[in-house]
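Troubleshooting: if your tokenizer reports a length mismatch, compare your output against this known-good record of 397 residues.
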Amino acid sequence: LFRPSRIRSLYSDFTRLKEINHDGYIANLEAWKKLILDMTNSPVPLLSHDRTILRISPELSHALFIDELGPPKALHDIVSYLIDQHVIEPLSSYDAHTTPGIIGYLLSSIKGLASGFTQVKLNQEYIIIPKVSSLSTEIFNLLSAKCSGSDLDIDKVFPVSEISHSIKDLKITATDLDICLLYLSKSGKLMYDRHAGVVKLHSKHNITKLDLHIADVKSAILNADTKIHSLSVAISDATEKARDCAEKGNRKEALHILRVRKIKEKSLSSYLNIREKYEEILSGIERSYLNVQQANALESSKAALSQLNSEIGSIENIENLVDDVSEQIAVSDEISHTIAPSKDSSIEEEELEEEFAQLVLEDQRSKLDNLNVPETFPDNEVKEPEQQDKQEEASED
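Known-good structure output:
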């Protein structure tokens, strides 16, 4: 897009093309849009330390400066186009005390269509929507995985410090995280108390005082973990240094290091105890949540049973109903007997026994008939009974 044959046009004040060559005008804007989006994915001065912020300032012009052509002359049009294309949005629209970002964004777009382009303010910060969207998705997926399989509110509450610790591999700033959480909050995926620094996932209700207390406990556990890790590393390092001093015969230095190590070991033991206490508190809150759920379930079951039983009525009504049904069955039997009287409907047990014996006999005959019995036998295999008896007597003599 930034070929040598086009570079001069791209860096010129091509606003005039809007009237005489609109397609060329849009093509130049699209080229700048792609370049800036590509630059947002690279660690360049354009974004400073924040990956989600574009600063329209002299520094931006300097970052895009080319010796032969200078800075881009149509920067105002470029930024206006990025706003109207939903690529960037004023950071001020994400402030808690102004119009919500998405609504403000749509309003600014409508105004931009009416006036040709949205009014651009220089020396202003803009959030980069595609970058915010992609980072927000990663953060949301990570938080969802943390509370997957749980329907307890305690597992859906996160202090911002815990989130920041969990996403450190994303290498984003506190400002980036704040913007992403606001973005997720405005999209309805979570609740975000910006002042308290607390997030509640998968909830349409406001963050409660209980949620804040849970976040405080989780934050305290995280702080304890951080301190425990730091002290553990310091103790390990002190051990190595003391050993090195002992090998060199530096007794005084070794004893000093061991004394400091003892102090750190006491601190470590204290933080481990504190962490254990906080874990007990969190476990107690979780048990209380479960108790509340079970109590609510019992209350709901009681209400359901009460409603159903009230529809049925009293026991006396049920007994009367059963008697009425039995009476009607008897009437039906009597009517049937009157219409088609039977001679004798009783069944004799002896007749059943005879029929069963007949079935067994027929089954045995069927099996005998199916046996494959040869009609003749070889002479050496079949003997007459008298001949067989004589042979047996001879063998006995």
